[in-house]
Design goal:
single chain, alpha/beta, Rossmann fold, 6-stranded parallel beta sheet, 16 helices, 12 strands
Length: 389
């Protein structure tokens, strides 16, 4: 039985970005180990996936001494376990796991690129992040951008040797569970609980944003635009679902003030039941600056929740403007405001877009299709290094 080690920087990625994937591989012929730093999601991950999880401390920031220690620990772990495949996800885990796997002699070393942090960085930080991406790619034997638009950027920036590059299936790191994300699968008691949490009133118009509360997610522009729209229509509500990350990418002070003081903004730190908020929302707005292949758009689309999102890599693989959603220019407050007003004033049209998005997701991004494609690629790579097996 081939041994697969999946590595992410923190267990949250295993729980949310790759949910169900490790269990699928275990149930379909692989011995699977999960590796990340410790975190509150660890027990949930082991229970959900049915696979062992090993703690190796990693930081998300640039921390040279701590990173060297993590690299050594990963090297020793890989030497002991002798995996057939090491597959990493998230930037820091990718750098450390690919280097450690190469040094320890692992033959199949796969890294998934799910976004490029350097595209919103400047100066020395940008140069360091580009160097990290290139070093990760050099150490990997295979690099899988998780969308076609991201693949094009990786090629344009010459981050990875083209012979190593491939997008699996139609993109996405994990696909979407259409069984879970369905308007027919919700629990009425839970739905009523969430209605109370946001003080739901069917007369109001709820806009939803799901993701970390950071500048790179376009939160500064969204909060400013929402406050302007609310001044014109006091039936509007904004539900922000996500955690603050003050250390890495804090939002502007003006945005913090709006978030704290605005009477129509509801901030919820986090929820594992985003589908309920999507059902109650008029639309999902996703103003991110950079993505790989955003799961939140798949989730909203599966829930028939209309989408307004920025014109960036990843987003444009899912949303076709005026067909399956509405696109606006990234970082452009005026365009965001115009497109949100259009969406609010055309409810039947945006519902039509949502119906078409659901069809597109059913055809291209069903989780079972993505999991099967990843497993088949693993088997193909194994057959190349172990002919006849």
């Amino acid at each position: 039985m081939p041994k697969l080690i999946r590595v992410t920087t923190v267990p949250m990625a295993l729980k949310h970005l790759l949910a169900g994937q490790m269990r699928y591989m275990k149930e379909n012929g692989f011995e699977v180990l999960m590796v990340s730093a410790d975190g509150k999601e660890r027990n949930d991950v082991m229970q959900n996936e049915g696979c062992p999880h090993i703690i190796i401390h990693m930081t998300r920031r640039i921390t040279p001494f701590a990173d060297l220690k993590s690299l050594w620990q990963l090297y020793k772990f890989f030497k002991k376990e002798r995996p057939d495949i090491v597959h990493s996800h998230t930037p820091k885990a990718g750098l450390l796991a690919m280097l450690a796997a190469k040094f320890s002699g692992v033959k199949i070393r796969i890294h998934t690129i799910a976004g490029l942090r350097f595209r919103t960085a400047t100066g020395i930080t940008r140069r360091i992040l580009v160097w990290m991406e290139k070093l990760t790619a050099k150490a990997a034997t295979h690099v899988w951008p998780n969308s076609l638009s991201l693949l094009n950027i990786v090629k344009e920036d010459k981050l990875v040797a083209e012979s190593k590059l491939q997008v699996i299936a139609n993109g996405s790191s994990n696909g979407i569970s259409l069984k879970r994300y369905s308007t027919n699968q919700l629990n009425n008691a839970k739905l009523e609980e969430i209605k109370k949490q946001i003080n739901y009133n069917k007369e109001n118009i709820y806009l939803l944003s799901v993701g970390r509360i950071v500048s790179d997610k376009g939160i500064n522009e969204l909060l400013k635009v929402f406050s302007e729209l609310y001044a014109e229509n006091n039936k509007l509500r904004l539900v922000l679902l996500g955690t603050f990350e003050e250390e890495l990418d804090p939002i502007a002070n003006e945005a913090k003030k709006i978030l704290k003081e605005h009477p129509a903004i509801i901030h919820i730190n986090w929820s594992n039941e985003v589908e309920y908020y999507m059902l109650l929302s008029y639309l999902l707005v996703h103003p991110s600056y950079r993505e790989g292949f955003p799961n939140v758009l798949l989730q909203a689309g599966a829930m028939n929740c209309p989408v307004v999102c920025s014109i960036i890599e990843g987003n444009i693989d899912i949303v076709d403007d005026k067909k399956t959603g509405i696109l606006f220019k990234v970082k452009n407050e005026a365009d965001l405001k115009e497109k949100l007003k259009f969406a609010i004033n055309n409810p039947e049209l945006v519902k039509q877009y949502a119906t078409e998005l659901r069809k597109k997701i059913e055809k291209n991004f069903d989780q079972t299709v993505v999991h099967r494609a990843i497993r088949n690629k693993y088997l193909e790579l194994l057959s190349e290094i172990q002919p006849g097996k």
